[in-house]
Specification:
The complex is a heterodimer of chains A (308) and B (388).
Chain A lengths: L2 H32 L6 H19 L2 H22 L9 H23 L10 H4 L1 E3 L5 E3 H23 L1 H11 L1 H6 L4 H27 L5 H16 L4 H29 L2 H26 L12
Helix pairs in contact in A: 1-6, 1-9, 1-10, 1-11, 2-3, 2-4, 2-9, 2-10, 3-9, 6-7, 7-9, 10-11, 10-12, 11-12
Chain B lengths: L1 H23 L2 E7 L6 H17 L3 E2 L2 E9 L4 H13 L5 E4 L3 H13 L3 E4 L16 E3 L4 H15 L3 E7 L2 H13 L3 E8 L7 H8 L5 E4 L4 H12 L7 E4 L8 H4 L7 E4 L8 H14 L5 H19 L6 H10 L10 E2 L5 E12 L5 E13 L10
Helix pairs in contact in B: 2-11, 3-4, 5-6, 11-12
Classes of the chains: A mainly alpha (308), B alpha/beta (388).
């Protein structure tokens, strides 16, 4: 285990964490602020990836496609809110789960019908495709560094918006006592719609960023959704800051665990046994982390104020 | 009026009876393949390959009209079991063709063979049914799972690789492939890395690869995992210093997603779209004309399965004479797209295996290409344990 390898692993963990943050930021706001369980959030990640695929095919320009995909992801989120989710806010959680699960199945199948079941890939433009020489032996892809940077920018932007702007204040207030905010003359319905649209766009953005790295396929959002739920539970539901810390934590632990679990175990057990249980243990790590955190901080690391 | 209604009902019933009687004479084939989720492309190739063969023979196999019932196992063992049981009990099919994945085969195996229905696998070839658990009602038209990896070991030897880095998903087939590779490879394995199924980010593994001093990589990463691995491998700039060889990682189902990143990568297999067999070249041409994509080994194996059933049914007068059907199947008296093809005592194929590499065709499509034959009439290593 060289230090360069460790450095690479940490960078990868950060990059994965940023991606998780983009997905879970929207999820935690929608869940925390509106009390709405949106299982279809992962599917919006997939929609972002497919949009990018479609637009790069049409325009041939990567940056333009990213922009178009973001706008479409936003529009798509608003559309879903208007036609489906708006009617579910007052319903029970079970109804919400059923309806949003239906959307997952529908959109996964739609992706398969429109784009076919095979895994698709998106080529990066020249200026993002290369790698940077980090050490003598090791190169690190530029695109992954860009991902980390973009994730950080979005996190800062969100933090400022939620903490210091009027709309952020309304979001926080709406999360605590929606009736009171509504009584004070704020259009809570529109507030929810904005939160929802932005959440969908962030998930779509995550999909856009992930598409060139991880390839595009139907159902690609399903696993991400599970991890995103782990992130918002660890971070504290409704808390963007909590989601940020938890996303980085989960990203780092998952990435480091997958590479190091086998090696650490082989110090204690014989190599073939370590080889057997190492990978299995590595994939459990984030759930073990979630359980441990829930024991000591049942409401997550940074619980949002007022969210029950 | 009353009378009229009665007559109508009676004649309707009679008509139903007639049509079901006519149906009873059809050759019924049930197909259990994976048609949903990310691996749906593999199942679709099997359906397309089989239907192309049916179409070329005018919807008949062995002179009998075929009723093909296609079921999706959804890659869930319980669903596969349910569908297969209903095929043999409710539809009373003459043959079951399935499955894509070995774990689905394990699920449907027992109910199908116990009902004395012939089960023909167009892809999955697990070791479990090749040795002492071989079965008189079970045939495989693809390969035994370990064989491709064993031939990869030969590819590594032939290319003079000394140190190889193995990368496979952490499940039975992944471990089988590493074992198969080790069986024939004469050099050193520097690392054996197991990733979770459906792994997204290979950068940690790629980092280990680049510091491992290995001169080649051996991978088994089917489907989307293969697309991600190959693209990330190329993006990390590893293609310059390391050779990449694999099984089920750079094939016709993944190449549309890998494109130039995979060109020149080595593979092992019993077939390639340009394998110089006349029937094969005609098949690939017809397949592309009809479905618009380059067929992979899955489609080829399904086509061969249809040809096998065709040859067997035409030899037998009465399909309920199971011994006669078995003998006719075992004879493998059909023209395989792979050239030479025979069944071993365990009903797994004995066939040639080749070194393949990925090429880009002039029309911009990608496929694996035949390089040379490495193992002739290659049998699996379990058939001796089969007492049949």
């Amino acid at each position: 285990m060289s230090t360069t390898l460790l450095l690479i692993l940490c960078l990868n963990g950060l990059q994965y964490g940023m991606l998780l943050f983009l997905i879970s930021a929207g999820l935690t706001l929608v869940f925390g602020v509106m009390g709405f369980i949106n299982l279809a959030h992962g599917v919006q990640y997939m929609v972002g990836a497919y949009l990018l695929f479609a637009f790069t095919g049409l325009t041939g320009n990567f940056m333009l496609s990213v922009l178009l995909s973001l706008l479409c992801a936003l529009a798509f989120g608003l559309l879903l809110e208007f036609f489906v989710f708006r009617h579910l806010y007052t319903r029970s959680h079970l109804d919400q789960v059923l309806a949003t699960f239906g959307i997952i199945i529908f959109l996964n199948e739609l992706a398969k019908v429109v784009f076919g079941p095979t895994t698709l890939s998106i080529a990066l433009p020249e200026f993002l495709a290369g790698s940077i020489q980090l050490t003598e032996q090791l190169k690190y892809p530029i695109y992954r560094l860009v991902t980390i940077g973009v994730g950080l920018l979005v996190a800062i932007g969100l933090f400022i918006t939620v903490s210091y702007t009027r709309i952020g204040m309304l979001i926080r207030a709406g999360a605590t006592t929606p009736e009171m905010v509504s009584a004070l003359g704020v259009n809570i319905q529109r507030l929810f719609m904005i939160v929802f649209g932005v959440g969908a766009m962030l998930a779509g953005f995550a999909g856009v960023i992930a598409a060139p790295i991880y390839a595009v396929e139907p159902g690609m959002g399903d696993n991400m959704l599970i991890v995103a739920f782990v992130v918002i539970i660890i971070g504290g539901i409704g808390s963007v800051g909590g989601a940020f810390i938890a996303a980085l934590l989960v990203g780092l632990i998952d990435t480091l665990g997958r590479s190091l679990a086998t090696e650490i175990l082989s110090f204690v057990f014989n190599p073939s046994f370590a080889n057997q249980i190492g990978p299995a243990l590595a994939s459990m790590l984030i759930y073990v982390l979630m359980a441990a955190i829930l024991i000591f901080r049942p409401r997550g690391l940074l619980p949002a104020k007022g969210v029950a | 009026m009353q009378q009229l209604i009665k007559t109508t009902i009676a004649s309707a019933l009679f008509a139903t009876f007639i049509s079901s009687a006519a149906l009873a004479e059809d050759l019924k084939i049930g197909m259990v393949v994976t048609l949903s989720g990310p691996p749906a492309a593999l199942g679709q190739q099997i359906v397309d390959g089989f239907q192309l063969a049916l179409e070329e023979k005018g919807g008949m196999l062995g002179g009998q009209k075929v009723e093909l019932i296609i079921e999706d196992d959804e890659l869930k063992p319980d669903v596969a079991l349910l569908k297969a049981t209903s095929l043999v009990e409710k539809n009373e099919v003459d043959f079951v063709v399935g499955t894509v994945f070995s774990n689905m085969l394990q699920a449907i195996f027992k109910p199908v063979v116990q009902s004395k229905t012939f089960l023909i696998s167009p892809n999955a070839g697990p070791s479990t049914f090749a040795g002492s658990n071989c079965n008189p009602f079970f045939f495989v038209t693809s390969y035994q799972n370990n064989q491709n990896a064993e031939v990869s070991g030969m590819v590594a030897n032939a290319e003079g690789f000394k140190n190889v880095f193995a990368l496979v998903p952490n499940y039975q087939a992944g471990r089988d492939n590493v074992d198969g590779f080790k069986q024939t490879f004469e050099g050193q394995l520097t690392d054996e890395v197991f990733t979770p199924l459906g792994h997204q980010d290979f950068s940690a593994e790629l980092a280990r690869m680049s510091t491992s001093d290995a001169d080649a990589v051996f991978a088994f990463m089917p489907g989307g995992m293969g697309v991600r691995l190959v693209n990330q491998f190329a993006n990390a700039g590893l293609s310059e210093n390391m050779k990449f060889m694999s099984v089920f990682t750079t094939d016709e189902t993944t190449l549309p997603g890998q494109k130039d990143a995979a060109v020149g990568f080595l593979a092992a297999g019993s077939w390639a779209p340009d394998l110089p067999v006349d029937a094969n070249l005609a098949f690939v041409k017809a397949f592309e004309a009809k479905y618009g994509y380059v067929p992979g080994s899955y489609a080829m194996q399904a086509y061969d399965t249809a040809s096998l059933i065709d040859s067997a049914v035409s030899k037998v007068d009465d399909l309920s004479d199971k011994d006669a059907v078995r003998a006719a199947l075992k004879a493998a008296d059909f023209e395989s797209l792979r050239g030479d093809f025979a069944f071993n005592n365990n009903h797994y194929p004995v066939q040639d295996f080749h070194m393949l590499n990925v090429v880009k065709r002039d029309d911009g499509k990608y496929h694996t290409s035949f390089v040379r034959t490495l193992a002739e009439d290659y049998a699996d290593s379990f058939h001796e344990q089969c007492k049949m």
